[in-house]
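Entry
Fold in token form

___
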Amino acid sequence: MKLDNNRRRQWRKGWQLVLLLVFIGLAGYWATQQRIHWDISQNGRNSLSQASIDTLQALGGPVEVTVYATRQDPRLGDIRSIISGFISNYQRFKPDINVSFVDPTEYPQQAQAAGVKLNGELVVHYEGREARLTSINEQAFTNLLMRLARPQIKQLSMLSGHGERKLDGIANRDLGDFGRKLSAIGFAARPYSLMDDGLTQENSDILVIASPQIELLAGEVDQLTDYLDKGGNLLWLVDGGEELYGLQPLAEALGIGFAPGVIVDPQAKQLNAPLTFALGVGYQPHAVTRQFDFITVFPFARPLILEDNSQWQRSVLVEVASEGWAETGIITDEPTFNAEKDAKGPFSVAVALNRVVDDREQRVVVVGSGYFLANTYLGNGGNLDLGVNIVNWLAGDERLITIQPRATIDHRLVLSQSELNFITIVVLVGVPLLFLVSGMLINWRRKRR
């Protein structure tokens, strides 16, 4: 009887050992097939933003990255390890990003032929296109991939000669910061005067009219309406309280009306902003506003009105001032609603239009505030993201419509000398002393037994 019990125990232990080995084997196999990544840093600095993931999904083929870096950098140390760790975040979502390293000191001719000037410079190839990167951060690398994702550089033509905002300007009202962002993701801009050669779809992907300040001549307006009639894409920024400066025929062709006054939004008080800053919080379904939930700011905005026009499909992109009004009187620090003169909100402040012309889709966006992309206000809320999404949609690149990569907001931990002394005492004295006292207590209790 005792022998049978021993055999049963041995069989049970044998099966338990077999099951344990099988479990360890399965766990090991699963570990080799699955990768789990936790990022507990503030703002997820060690993870990719959704913008970067979306950009990777827009890249159909493999990406070749050649890193020209020495094995050790005097300032950064193991620079190859830093770059490998950075790119591995992208490889988790796109495994066919292939990375190779070349030491420019060992192979100087190869580095010279590639035009490399800095240690740690990246040369990236995708579908025959090439781009370079000298700074390693998510925003720079994702912008580079976005440029490569475009089959060709998109051309923006900025109407000039009438006091318009400049896409390369540095003045507060200009759009220079926005222009630099567009350049980083694959757009090229040029000023266009209506005295130049005719504007066509072949030499311009998008025409931008950014708040003219003087009257356009009748012949110039005819050229613009002709460009629109032939299917040209257009971004038109109109400021509140201003005239159209001769562009009324363009508005009529689009079926867009402009209500008088400047939009006043009482909700701006919640952000300690002037009441003349209309807050965009309501976004209608559209490719431009897909997954877009940021607050946008439209300073000194003008209400847009959709008039009857069967030629276009129209979509309201942004509504503002559900509790506000359009101030038609003199703007003061504390404007008040005048029921006899002022219209009540909400108002449409950005509208998208599209139609088919000669078997090609034509796209137009009209925004009732040029200030929302100006240097002074571009950093407010999601203004930059919305502006980039609008231009991407106008250029026909819906797959690249995405929220821009976030900036890293982690901060250094700076400790005072007294705090460092406290930590030193706790780690070097307190912890060992705690273990010593615990050991002595345990030993004393054992001796009493």
Notes: The mean pLDDT is 86. The CA atoms of residues 10 and 402 lie 63 Å apart. The longest helix spans residues 2-33. The first strand starts at residue 63 and ends at 68.
